[in-house]
Design a protein that fits this description.
flat, 3 helices, single chain, mainly beta, 44% strand, 480 residues
Length: 480
């Protein structure tokens, strides 16, 4: 079962229930999901007090830059109240793809965290009929999905041939970067996917005259399947009005382990022990490509042999089975220990093992409570390679404001939204503030109809929203 809806308006976000087919029943959602902020909202390039241009170094020698972003989306005014729906206010700091055991740091609500490892799942949606602009939820949690962004009517000057474009919509409201392009139709041969084109090619001639091609369909290279590595779309049939999709396949993050603390790193011989958090780690054996460790905390002892075989390095860190074999977690779950594959000289050196250990480990899942109980976390993944690359922190419940109850606080107090003047129908003045900065009145562009906003042009997630409105922002700036 999945959910399907048309467009991106939130005011009574209409969606349709699907059971392997076309729309059958309408429902409403009170959560902002996969929605972009309004184009006439407030766009703030940068604020002091947020993470801006922070440089980080990874164990494999890579270097990255962290920039935070803030989004308010789908806000509206009703019955004298300003409402930000659940999921309507969030922060994120997307920073490339995070690889297991590389000590990839990132910020969440202004605090630095260390990514340890993760797990993913493959999500499949089958037998869906779609029209242009419609979306289909693509994961069980219904937080990311597929949209038919283009259905071309007769683009080739013949009947029965269509251009299709699908895009993955992330929980943040952004499109995943690469589109899925398909050429199909009742008269288009599926030669790119049925093996014909691979076997025979187009022709043996280097040049062919138009007069030798009386039927253009014989020379179309149709493809019913479009792929971006781990994600794909398979189309069964299409007309100029609708598309029957046989299968959507993509991936989502099932679980991520993170820590607010620097790892303990060292090289240990058999019999050595050390403390991490509330646990004691003891090395009981060291082999040629593994070591056996005991992790003991108040809940008991976990003993595991961890390491990686030479032949498995070619699928590390992609294989999470290999990653799981490289680490052990305490019984409480608050501590982890892994072999340090990036140790100079290798993780087994002169009969000793190089280890990394983290404390106060947090397990982040789809919709899990954040350290601020008013907010939840949503880990986001690369649709091509299965690697997590951001954790979005969003409000769990609707935020309701008015002239008296006029302040909304971001996760862990990272920022505040302050309503300065509101007459019950129109927001005449409001601003966002951090511990170090405060915006001007942000009510102007929306003319007080809502308080949608984007902060952070350099953040890779929120930067996409800026790119959609740069032209209009420029026009407004030069007209002043």
């Amino acid at each position: 079962m999945s959910l399907k809806f048309a467009g991106k308006a939130f005011a009574a976000l209409a969606v349709s229930m699907l059971i392997c087919g076309t729309a059958s029943a309408a429902i409403e959602s009170d959560r902002a999901v996969m929605l972009s902020p309004a184009k006439d909202g407030a766009y703030v390039v940068k604020m002091l007090g947020l993470t801006n241009n922070k440089k980080i170094a990874l164990l494999d020698g890579g270097r990255k830059t962290i920039d935070d972003g803030i989004v308010i989306r789908a806000s509206y005014i009703k019955d004298g109240k300003i409402i930000i729906p659940a999921g309507g206010m969030y922060t994120t700091s997307r920073c490339s793809n995070w690889w297991s055991f590389n000590d990839h740091t990132f910020t969440a609500a202004g605090k630095l965290y260390h990514f340890i490892t993760d797990e993913y799942q493959q999500d499949v949606v089958k037998n869906v009929t779609m029209k242009k602009g419609e979306m289909v939820f693509g994961n069980e949690a219904k937080t990311r999905g597929w949209q038919l962004t283009y259905l071309g009517g007769n683009p080739y000057g013949v009947e029965g041939a269509q251009n299709l474009e699908f895009k993955i919509v992330k929980t943040t409201g952004n499109y995943y970067g690469n589109p899925f392009l398909i050429v199909a139709g009742s008269n288009v041969p599926n030669v790119a996917c049925d093996g014909t084109h691979l076997k025979n090619g187009s022709t043996d001639k280097p040049t062919t005259c138009w007069s030798e091609q009386p039927n253009p369909f014989d020379h179309f290279v149709g493809n019913s399947i479009a792929t971006n590595n781990r994600s794909s779309v398979t189309v069964e049939s299409c007309t100029d009005k609708e598309v029957k999709v046989k299968e959507f396949v993509t991936v989502s993050t099932k679980k991520a382990l993170i820590s607010p603390n620097d790892p303990i790193m060292g090289v240990y011989a058999k019999g050595d022990s050390f403390k991490v958090g509330k646990a004691t780690v003891k090395v009981t054996a060291v082999g040629t490509d593994n070591a056996t460790v005991e992790v003991t905390d108040a809940k008991g002892t976990v003993t595991k042999t961890i390491g990686i075989k030479a032949e498995d390095r070619k699928i590390f860190p992609s294989s999470r089975i290999v990653c799981q074999g490289m680490m052990v977690q305490s019984k409480s779950g608050s501590e982890t220990v892994n072999v340090n594959i990036h140790n100079k000289g290798g993780f087994i050196v002169d009969g000793k093992v190089a280890l990394m250990a983290y404390s106060d480990v947090l397990t982040v899942t789809e919709g899990s409570q954040w350290t601020d109980p008013a907010y939840i976390a949503r880990p986001e993944i690369c649709a091509e390679c299965t690697f997590i690359h951001e954790i979005m922190i969003e409000n769990d419940k609707p935020i309701v404001l008015d002239a008296k109850n006029n302040v909304a606080v971001g996760p862990n107090g990272y920022w505040k939204v302050v309503i300065d003047e509101f007459d019950g129908k129109t927001v005449k003045a409001w601003h966002i503030e951090t511990a170090k900065d405060k915006t001007e009145n942000l009510a102007g562009r929306a003319k007080g109809k809502h308080i949608d906003a984007v902060v952070g042009a350099e953040c890779r997630s929120t930067g996409h929203f800026f790119s959609r409105v740069y032209k209009q922002l420029y026009k407004e700036a030069v007209s002043k």
